[in-house]
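Box 3.1 A note on notation
Throughout this textbook, protein chains are presented in two layers. The first layer is the amino acid sequence; the second is a token string describing backbone geometry. Keep the layers aligned when reading.
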Amino acid sequence: MEAFPFRAAQQAKSYQELQRIPVSVVLDCVRSLYNVGSFFRTADAAGAAKLYLTGYTGHPPHAGIAKTALGAERTMPWAHQAEALPLVESLREGGQQIAVIETSLHAADVYDWEPRFPVTVVFGNEVTGVPQPLCDAADLHVRIPTLGRKQSLNVAVAGGIVIYELLRKYRRLHDEWQRQP
């Protein structure tokens, strides 16, 4: 796997000059094509590096994805892999921090989490979540706080929150690099 070009990122005068941020997304067995399309659109808008579609997650070309992606399926870098676990292991070997987005006993709050870029975030099935082998393979678990009675979010909504929180944190880090002499 290719590493994210940090030197170019550090040399960019502003975060807007960056083409992509060092954030990749793995969708494992996401059943709704509309959710997949929403991830394409959100990941592209935030400048994520790549979207990986694994298991039975649908992939382009498909009308259901295109309906919500609105063309982002043509501009967002993506790949389809049959199995998520070997992909995640390969990304880790390439230097990526692996964060599973899943509520668990020891999950870090997304707002408290200090990611180590480059980072890959893993989302799972809308009903069953991230499979245990992927949870076990992660460097950490990250949760989105939910205060209501329903203790879950739609996976595409969760993706938007996490991806944009990572963009916010990366912008802050980039700004710190720019202030160094």
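Residues 155-179 form the longest helix (25 residues). The chain has a mean pLDDT of 91.
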